Amino acid sequence: MSDSFLAPGPQQTLLATLHARAFDTTRRPHPLLNDTQAAETITKLTSHHGTDLTNTTGMTLPESAGICLRALALDA
């Protein structure tokens, strides 16, 4: 797997957040955010770069819930 498309620093943090939003949308029966744009973007990145971003971001389903709940709180 090549991580050369990942810029260091804030860009990697943003990728992890995007990945969390996609996880929420695609892996939960009742998504908190249902961010279909995030899911579409992650799908495009994954297919274009031929990599599973789970290994890159280290995102898990429980972590994605925390990120999505934080987004809901900030939006409120």
Walk me through the structure.
This protein is an all-alpha fold and about 80 residues long. The protein has one domain. It contains 4 helices and no strands. It has helices spanning about 10-25, 35-50, 55, 60-75. The radius of gyration is 12 Å and the shape is globular. The mean pLDDT is about 85.
Write a compact overview of the structure shown:
With about 80 residues, the protein is mainly α.
What is the overall pLDDT average?
84
Instruction: Give me the number of helical elements.
Output: 4
Number of domains: 1
Poorly predicted ranges: none
What is the radius of gyration?
12 Å
**Structural class, please?**
mainly alpha
Overall number of strands:
0
- Termini, distance in Å? 39 Å
Features:
mainly alpha, 76 residues
Blueprint (SSEs and pairs):
Blueprint: H1 10-27, H2 36-49, H3 53-57, H4 61-75
Helix pairs in contact: 1-2, 1-4
